[in-house]
Specification:
heterodimer; A: alpha+beta; five-stranded mixed sheet; 5 helices; B: alpha+beta; five-stranded antiparallel sheet; 12 helices; 35% helix
């Protein structure tokens, strides 16, 4: 099977590549674009570690083919860092609240939550819990993640 | 790379998709949102020679009213149904059920046609469609055909859809404003596959008796199942604790659950009775309160 040419925008940068149609978007991001912040866990849509944003919406990159992202705007965890090199409010809040231990699931959480906080700047604990129900974390027990989200929401609204 | 090799086709219209299906249908799989198919490809449980990606086909994503039904195009994403005021107003049962479909990340990609065509007996939309006596519109090169959920869902992950056919749209009958509806589910984690789910719609006479009941259960049989005997038991009766318990007991007799990793058959049977009672009570409360949801 010959490759298929795709054009997409990744973290604001225009990208054109020829890809095998069976290449998963998650592998395309990691292996072709070398953006290894996107982590791959279960590869069947359960763990949420590979969550990225496509056209602004959080999606599982392991459940998309790279060819399906043709023409789309993709954001990975690398897009969160500010222009001056500092962490985003959300990343800083994760750090401040010890909301990560091994850190494997963190990029997925960040990409789910950054989209969520844009739509809901003052979420309740219940809303936060519901939002992160699609991301598995085996270390933190979620409590510190929830604290971090609250801090990030407060920082932004201040 | 996880999936096995395939030839990738990306039709830009339904006509083109149907044309590909008539040519390659036996060796092809249709990809829409991919939230069920890509895991199967990743695990190589499915290794089609041709993958027909209808994700860019035009004119297949819509939610509109047509007479007594809400008509939803096959490519409509779950998120769009969740956000739709039209769905909320005309078919609140569907709005309530859709929030149980996967997680937000899944609902952002998964499509209504994909969920129906996949035929998972624990999926939410097939259960709602069955309860409401909805319709599935199927298309092939020869034209359209309308199929009932009972004729469409055959057994676990198997539908009557032929290799050359495509689900074009789903018709959900609107719910009368006097009715109360409820969708209840138990899953190990919100967003995971439901162990048992129940969709209920009830209408009450002026004297408070049930004038109409629609009831379906998912997750316990090989297909989403109408509980017609329970519906008949209730119509004409007053909503009392006894009658709800009778409905629960009858449900436990009717279902034929199997054991798996997530729960034993006995547990699922017990849960079926409890969930039917819960759904009926909630729907009745809503009908009595004059609120649809």
């Amino acid at each position: 099977m010959e490759g298929i040419k795709i054009h997409l925008k990744v973290n604001g940068q225009d990208i054109s590549r020829e890809v095998d149609p069976r290449l998963l978007l998650s592998d395309f991001i990691r292996e072709n674009l070398l953006l290894t912040g996107t982590h791959i866990g279960c590869e069947h849509g359960v763990c949420g570690a590979c969550t990225i944003q496509v056209n602004g919406d959080p999606v599982r990159s392991c459940l998309m083919l790279a060819v399906q992202a043709d023409g789309c705007e993709v954001k990975t965890v690398e897009s969160l860092i500010q222009e001056n090199g500092e962490l985003s409010h959300l990343q800083q809040a994760f750090s401040d609240n010890h909301a990560l231990q091994c850190g494997f699931c963190t990029p997925g959480f960040l990409m789910t939550l950054s989209s969520f906080l844009e739509e809901n700047s003052n979420p309740s604990e219940e809303e936060i819990r519901k939002c992160i129900s699609g991301n598995l974390c085996r270390c933190t027990g979620y409590s510190n993640i929830i604290k971090a989200v609250k801090q990030a929401a407060q920082t932004v609204s201040n | 790379m996880k999936p096995a090799k395939f030839n990738y086709l990306r039709p830009s219209s339904m006509e083109e998709a149907v044309h590909y299906l008539s040519e390659y249908g036996e060796d092809a799989k249709v990809l829409s949102g991919g939230q069920s198919l890509i895991p199967l490809l990743n695990m190589r449980l499915s290794t089609p020679k041709y993958l027909i990606d209808i994700g860019r086909a035009e004119g297949l994503s819509y939610i509109k009213e047509d007479g007594e039904s809400l008509v939803i195009g096959t490519l409509t994403k779950h998120t769009e149904i969740e956000k739709s005021e039209l769905v909320k107003g005309k078919c609140p049962l569907l709005s309530e059920a859709i929030r149980w479909v996967g997680h937000e990340q899944i609902r952002n990609r998964g499509t209504v046609g994909g969920s129906i065509a996949h035929g998972d007996p624990s999926a939410e939309l097939p259960c709602v469609l069955t309860a409401l006596r909805g319709e599935i519109v199927i298309v092939d090169v020869n034209g359209e055909e309308i199929v009932s959920p009972e004729d469409f869902f055959l057994t676990y992950m198997l539908t009557s859809l032929q290799p050359d056919q495509l689900v074009k749209e789903i018709r959900f009958p609107r719910i009368k404003p006097t009715c109360g509806s409820a969708f209840v589910e138990v899953a190990r984690r919100h967003g995971d596959f439901g162990l048992v789910e129940v969709a209920a719609v009830v209408d009450l006479c002026e004297d408070g008796r049930f004038s109409d009941v629609k009831l379906a259960i998912g997750g316990v049989n090989s297909v989403p199942t109408l509980l017609e005997d329970v519906e008949r038991l209730l119509v004409g009766k007053e909503p009392t604790e006894e009658i709800f318990n009778e409905a629960g007991d009858l449900t436990m007799e009717l279902v034929e659950p199997e054991s798996d990793l997530h729960g034993t058959a006995e547990y699922r049977r017990e849960l079926s009775g409890t969930m039917v009672i819960r759904a009926l009570k909630q729907a009745t409360d809503r009908a009595q309160g004059g609120r649809v949801m």
